[in-house]
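sry for the spam today, last one i promise. struct tokens for design, 48 residues
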């Protein structure tokens, strides 16, 4: 999906910060950021 958006110059946002399945951070939203989802972070970095 990211590749399609980038290839077609479609703007996108990623809103899932704290969620066990797809979040940037896999802990509870009430806790300080911890347990970063490194694979997802690296994916977004590689697409910049």
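last one done:
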């Amino acid at each position: 999906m990211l590749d399609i958006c980038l290839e077609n110059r479609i703007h996108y946002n990623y809103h899932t910060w704290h969620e066990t399945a797809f979040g940037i951070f896999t802990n509870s939203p009430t806790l300080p950021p911890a347990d970063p989802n490194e694979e997802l972070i690296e994916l977004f970095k590689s697409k910049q």
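The chain has one domain: 15-48. ok im logging off now
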